[in-house]
Amino acid sequence: MIYKLNTKSRNYGFGTQIRRSPFFQSTIDWGAKDFSIYNHMYIPRDFGNPEENFWNLVNEAILCDVSVERQVEIKGPDAKKFVQYLTPRDIANCEVGQCKYILITDDKGGILNDPVLLRIEENRYWLSLADSDILLWAKGVLINSGMNVQLCEPDVSPLQLQGPKSREIIRKIFGDEIANLKYYRLKKIEFEKIPLVISRTGWSSELGYEIFLCDENKGNILWNKIMDLGKPLGLKPGHTSTIRRVEGAMISYHADINSDNNPYEIGLERLINLDKKDDFIGKSALKKIKKNGVKNKLIGLIINCEPFKNPNNEFWEVILNEKIIGKVTSAVYSPRLKRNIALAMIDVNHANIGSFLTVRIHDNFVNCEQVTLPFYDPKKSLAKQ
């Protein structure tokens, strides 16, 4: 849901229970009009036309306030062991200064979150979260674990600088060492007395960086400094692009997946290592799922109708032979592909590339075709360059 705030005065919002990021006022000053709520925080979702935001991302660069990606800090002598217990991905070779995309699973193999893991120091990790309360889950796990770790939500608020010009902008602001970071690597720095962690990651499927502010009092200073220095190189204020993330088949928690889904259903079995000796939550369940197979599968659809004016705000039924076999989870019009594209979760028995199905959009029944994911840049070469 998108919330329109009265940004002409300081009397906006929906109470103190919904948190504001350190960049909140700066995003308004730079043109943010509408916000949605993610991880109990406001996130800017409108700097103008979403299609224009998409083109700014894929042709130039955008700066996004993604402070809603809250961090869970895991620190202490048993930090590595505890992180490994939370995830089915083998993190044995995760070095200090490295990031990894991981899954957090429950005892039934269901996905609770799909964060990026950052190894900040030898015994200090961050989980950069999607939209669910993993700090509470981790605290519950810790109580009876017998492990020596401390858990908290640290004073960390990320920005994303994404797009083909992002490296040039990062080089101008932070220098060659940061600009030349390898994919999924990070560096701790201080920039004009502002403590930062910068990583070669992002939620855009484009070349990009994440800038983790470690002092909430410096948010507006940092935002304005980056925008002022980056604007001559093409930097625009923006927001995470639904168009680009669906093109790249990037899953969104609560939209495309939830705790009822397991990694095999969404094609992320590469993030599971069932052969390692270390135990993790959900290991037995995932072994059974691998042996017995899955009931559902995430697929891609081309929906053949007039271009969607907006992304879907509800799940649409997927139908075959008058029987509901699943639901569309994310749908949007791609101006680059000139197609309505969608992610859908359907009965695995009907997941066949090239086959035709029907989608019910309100009272209309629309033909669609199953296609290979992702819709664009299948090898993720743009993000890895």
Summarize the structure in short:
The protein has 385 residues and is of the alpha+beta class.
Structure description:
This protein folds into 3 domains: 3-69 and 155-246, Probable tRNA modification gtpase trme, domain 1 (Gyrase A, domain 2), CATH 3.30.1360; 71-152, Alpha-Beta Plaits, CATH 3.30.70.1400; 295-378 and 381-385, Aminomethyltransferase beta-barrel domains (Elongation Factor Tu (Ef-tu), domain 3), CATH 2.40.30. The chain is of the alpha+beta class. The chain has helices spanning 24-29, 50-59, 79-86, 134-143, 166-174, 176-179, 219-230, 242-247, 283-292, 381-384, and strands at 3-4, 34-38, 41-46, 61-65, 71-75, 99-101, 104-105, 111-113, 116-121, 124-128, 150-152, 157-162, 186-191, 194-199, 208-213, 235-238, 296-303, 316-320, 323-334, 339-347, 356-361, 364-371. The model has no long low-confidence stretch (mean pLDDT 95). The chain is globular and about 65 Å long. It has a 6-stranded mixed sheet with strand order 13-14-15-12-4-16, with helices on both faces. It is 21% helix and 31% strand.
- Integer tally of domains: 3
- The CATH class of the largest domain: Alpha Beta
Number of strands: 22
For the record, the CATH architecture of the largest domain stands as 2-Layer Sandwich
Main pleated sheet:
6 strands, mixed
- Report the oligomer: single chain
Spatial order of the strands forming the largest sheet: 13-14-15-12-4-16
Global morphology: globular
What percent of the residues sit in helical stretches (DSSP H or I)?
10-25%
Model regions low in confidence, pLDDT < 50 over at least 5 residues: none
Radius of gyration: 21 Å
β-sheet strand percentage: 25-35%
Distance between the termini: 34 Å
Number of helices: 10
Mean pLDDT: 95
CATH topology of the largest domain: Gyrase A, domain 2
